[in-house]
Amino acid sequence: MLLSDAIQIWRDDAGDYHIEWDASAPDTQVDLQALSLSRQPVTDSFDQVHDERRIRLSGLPGGRRHLFRLRDQHGTDLISGERRLTMQGAPNFRDFGGYRTADGRAVRWGSLYRSGQLSKLSELDSDLLHDLQLDLICDFRREQEQANDPTQLREGVHTRIVSLPIVPGSNDAYFEQEHFELGNPQHMFDFMVEVNRDLARGQGEIYATMFRELLAVPDARILVHCAAGKDRTGFAVAMILWALGVSREQILADYLLSARYFNPTNELPRVRKKYGLEDVPEEGILPMLQVHEAYLAEALRVLESEYGSIDTYLEAVLGVGEVEREELRRRYLEGP
Q1: Looking at 55, 57, 226, 289, which residue is catalytic?
Q2: CATH 2.60.40 in the chain, residues?
Q3: CA distance 125 to 134
Q4: DSSP 105-123
Q5: pTM score above 0.90
Q6: Mapping DSSP to helix (H, G, I), strand (E, B) and coil, where does residue 101 land?
Q7: 1.10.287, 2.60.40, 3.40.470, 2.40.50: which CATH number matches 1-81?
Q8: Active site residue 138
Q9: What does the alpha-carbon distance between residue 235 and residue 327 come to, in Å, rounded to a whole number?
Q10: pLDDT along the chain (336 residues), means of 10
């Protein structure tokens, strides 16, 4: 029988999809169906190459979002998708669906996305972004960041962009503290822990607005993003997944996926210019561009320490009580 948590899907640079799975019985036979975002069978012709517990699909058009239905002879019927979407000009673009919740359901694929900035989209990227049918984009970058690298949306796209600027990570005051030594990797690591601490303590109204905007649009498909798509975005995603009932361990694992899908070295020139760090050695900057469990874990620790629980923070500060959580679960969870 197919194991729901053991399906892996990715698209290579040539545009081919690779689908791998695991099963509880060696004789499990899997039938695969390619779907559109609306979960209708695709009409495009494509080739399948089967191997043991693996299928390679060739010929599906680029610039489209595909999901996949996997069925076995035991009656298991699962829908899954690629975690990282192949965007040439948007770093760290991911679907954060598919995660299991405490009640045995799963977050719906194709509705909740996270990424870095959207200022350098290729034509194929724009096709794919359009195909996602997003209702809402929440942009956590500072106003200056948004002005310098504006989001690119194709003409005629009616996605609403909500500016929700967050300052931490761009706050010079921390760098000016007497103990801070610019270029010291440990000091930069500590700075990023402080950034995440501030997300929990000082940015409640921003994240409350995100939830209000999300809940105001029926069954909204949403993208949350910042510059790199890891910390400001990571806290937003953590709060959404927590409200849906996803475990702390899975939330931290999703956060850490930025280590796989975001290349810090590629971003060094941008960050050097942004923060005036041209003369700082690479090792002194990299902690700002990396993800470590300690970063987000510190934000969660602060919430539990200062509010008693993350559930209390969600309701008291973000305005997400049981009524709102039930609506989010209705929209974004599926399964028994």
Answers
A1: 226
A2: 1-81
A3: 14
A4: -EEPTTSEEEES--SS--H
A5: yes
A6: strand
A7: 2.60.40
A8: no
A9: 21
A10: 90 94 89 94 89 92 94 93 93 96 96 96 94 97 94 88 82 62 90 93 96 97 96 98 98 96 89 87 94 98 98 98 98 91
